[in-house]
Amino acid sequence: MIVLAIGLIGWVLTLRMDVTDSVSQTQGLNQALEDVQVRIDTDMGNLQQRIADLEEQLALADNEMRTIMADHSGFADVLRELGESGALPSGERRSYGNY
Predict the structure, then answer these.
(1) Cα angle 66, 47, 36; round to 5
(2) Are 75 and 83 in contact, with CB atoms under 8 Å apart?
(3) pLDDT digits over 31-73, tens only?
(4) pLDDT of residue 74
(5) CA distance 36 to 42
(6) How far apart are CA 55 and CA 62, in angstroms?
(7) How many CA atoms lie within 13 A of 67 on its CB side?
(8) How many Å apart are CA 47 and CA 55, to the nearest integer?
(9) Mean pLDDT over each residue of the chain, to the nearest integer
């Protein structure tokens, strides 16, 4: 009976240490997951800001492109009129496209 009681006490103590270790490992894993979540949130915030910056830059570039294309269209009209009036050097009959 004494041997059985000693064996049972040893088993309970071993089981308790295993449970304590498991709880410690679970807490460490939870902390690691929280750290990863913080990094993901930070990275997503940074990515969202970078995407917003890129969208703004694309909108500005598109606006500039439209302005340049409108200027080119005006230049093409002037050159066409000059060519029709004979003000350009002889043989100057370029086509400047439909901007």
Answers:
(1) 175
(2) no
(3) 999 999 999 989 988 999 999 999 999 999 999 999 998 888 8
(4) 83
(5) 10
(6) 10
(7) 6
(8) 12
(9) 85
Rounded to an integer, the average pLDDT of 93-98 is 59
The whole-angstrom distance between residue 78's C-alpha and the CA centroid of its chain comes to 45
Instruction: Return the structure tokens found at 6.
Output: 């000693």
**What is the residue whose two structure tokens read 């807490």?**
27
Q: Residue 96 in contact with residue 73, Cβ under 8 Å?
A: no
Decide if 96 contacts 79 (C-beta within 8 A). Answer: yes
Largest pairwise CA distance in the chain:
124
Residue with tokens 């002889």: 90
**Which of 9-13, 54-58, 83-87: highest mean pLDDT?**
54-58
Contacts of 83 (CB under 8 A, 6+ apart): 92, 93, 94
Note the helical H segments in the chain: 2-85
The structure tokens listed for 25 are 């490992």
Q: Which residue bears the tokens 């910056």?
A: 53
* Entry field: residues in the chain: 99
